[in-house]
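sorry for the late reply, my laptop died twice this morning and i had to redo everyting from scratch. anyway the thing you sent over, i finally got around to it. pasting the sequence first so we're on the same page, its 329 residues, then the predicted structure underneath. double check i copied it right bc i was rushing
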Amino acid sequence: MSVLIETTVGEIIADLDFETFKIESYNFLKLCKCKLYEYQCLYNIKKNRSFEFGDPLIGFADRKELRVHNTSIEGILQPNDEVKPLLIRPSKEDNTPIQAQKGSLGVVVKPGDSVSLIGSRMIITLSEEPQELKNVVFFGNIIKETFSTLDRINATAIDTSGRPLVDIRIRKMHLIHDPFPDPPNFRTSNISQPFKDIRLPEDLQLAFCQDSLRQEIHIDIRRKELSLEIMGDLPGVGIKPSDKVLFICKLNPLTRAKDIATIFQRFGYVKSVEIVRDKSTGRSLGYGFIEFDTKKSCDSAYKNMDGILIDDRRIHVDFSQSLKKKQVG
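ok and here's the structure:
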């Protein structure tokens, strides 16, 4: 496992082919880490074919940062915090159409007269049957245990452009394994909140239709509420992820929550352990969250438990960026 994509309709876990596609994998992982994909819309959904993400301005036209439609990690790491639409060359220049299976992860190629280029625009396939796609470099696969999320995306209602009538957005990119060192000038972006271009359910759009001013006010309020929900069910603006929660992954499917609690309790009182499971089968997806009662206990567990063996699996722990676990006093 390489990346967990947390969306508003479920989780998607991707495995990347680091060895064959070093450039594509490095570019994607560093874009994930610098937060480029946070709160972005899924778009260009083609039923039983594919969907895309990675254009920072779709569904986010009012944003102040990342005002580009496509860029690479090189475009993000410009001097003076400037962001440019700078694309890079892929590992392979061959644009021959490829037969892609369901759950193939690729980067969209911008063909040129002399050289092809790639950036932040990604594509994931949805078809149950192999399909031929061109101008894409496939460098990873979605694990089958999270295909249920792909099915929900495939079933969503869309407009003529392929954007969902009710937004599906990326909440967070969790890096599970990144074999590449960060460049010397690496930095993360401060992502603003998408408040204006939020697509609401139809019943809310039609609410308060008798009074246009009242309708506008209430829909604007609901749009902001939905935006907060996208960011993880936040009860208010400005609340950060809990500093008492760790993200834990690479778990053995047989590892139980009480086993984790027993192992981690030497660092302090464990308030809760949540192992994320497939909604259909109940099978562990190999990751979850552990919550302590103090920040000190959480820090200590983070420093000491990354890479240890639990049930013959070397686990990975990191500070949780999920906002679901935030406790408000």
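The chain has three domains: 3-175, 200-237, 245-319.
thats about all i looked at so far, will dig more tmrw
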